[in-house]
Structure to design on (247 residues):
């Protein structure tokens, strides 16, 4: 597990030019690594490449020292992720969704009921156990997605804007869960635009802009939001001064 999760000089572009370019990122075991950037910076694309949801056009992505296109089922079972939308089949109950997720992550049948009951209680989903996912509020769908991603205590965690829609209690719960996971040795990558929350949970902060990594921030930096915008503004101004086509 020493390798954690790694993107090595990865590029993946879409029609029109958006995407990520020459990205190198390592998420170490035992740390919460935050990825911050404005909308469209490339955070979700980066996470999708890392998870094998998109194929890199250049460079490589690996989890636990194994390239993502060769990761065996046993290792995928140790990954928990939430990218863009929560894992939830709308016509299945909350309990059914969590049971299915547990099965997909390799939780043995004899343990699934206990695992589902424990995570339902932790994420305050027990009252909704028999409710179909489509009937949940947005905030509770988020809780369901996070519960599905974390219930099997994964060694590798990738969460895209996980606090969106969460109330303060849910945000604190997630923060404690991620810190606990890192303390137990998990490699955690989380994207967010909530700089104040990032400062409370992250060991390292990487800044993205225009599909590239442009800098790092110390979570203990005073006026973290101001420092973030200064880094992004400097990058924007630098790119504007470059000749067209050299970006």
């Amino acid at each position: 597990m020493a390798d954690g999760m790694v993107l090595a000089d990865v590029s993946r572009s879409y029609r029109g030019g958006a995407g990520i370019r020459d990205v190198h990122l390592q998420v170490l075991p035992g740390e919460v690594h935050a990825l911050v950037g404005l909308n469209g910076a490339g955070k979700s694309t980066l996470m999708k490449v890392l998870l094998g949801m998109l194929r890199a056009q250049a460079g490589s992505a690996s989890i636990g020292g194994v390239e993502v296109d060769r990761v065996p089922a046993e290792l995928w079972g140790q990954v928990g992720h939430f990218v863009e939308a929560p894992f939830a089949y709308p016509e299945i109950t909350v309990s059914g969704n969590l049971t299915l997720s547990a099965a997909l992550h390799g939780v043995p049948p004899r343990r699934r009921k206990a695992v589902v009951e424990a995570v339902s209680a932790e994420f305050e989903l027990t009252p909704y156990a028999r409710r179909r996912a489509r009937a949940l509020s947005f905030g509770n769908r988020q809780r369901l997605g996070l519960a599905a991603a974390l219930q099997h205590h994964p060694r590798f965690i990738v969460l895209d804007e996980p606090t969106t829609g969460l109330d303060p209690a849910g945000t604190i719960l997630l923060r404690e869960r991620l810190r606990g996971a890192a303390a137990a040795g998990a490699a955690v990558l989380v994207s967010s635009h909530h700089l104040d929350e990032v400062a409370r949970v992250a060991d390292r902060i990487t800044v993205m802009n225009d599909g590239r990594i442009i800098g790092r921030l110390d979570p203990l930096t005073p006026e973290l939001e101001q420092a973030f915008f200064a880094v992004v503004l400097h990058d924007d101004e630098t790119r504007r001064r470059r000749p067209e086509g050299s970006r």
About this structure: The mean pLDDT is 93. The longest strand covers residues 5-13. Residues 88-154 form one domain.
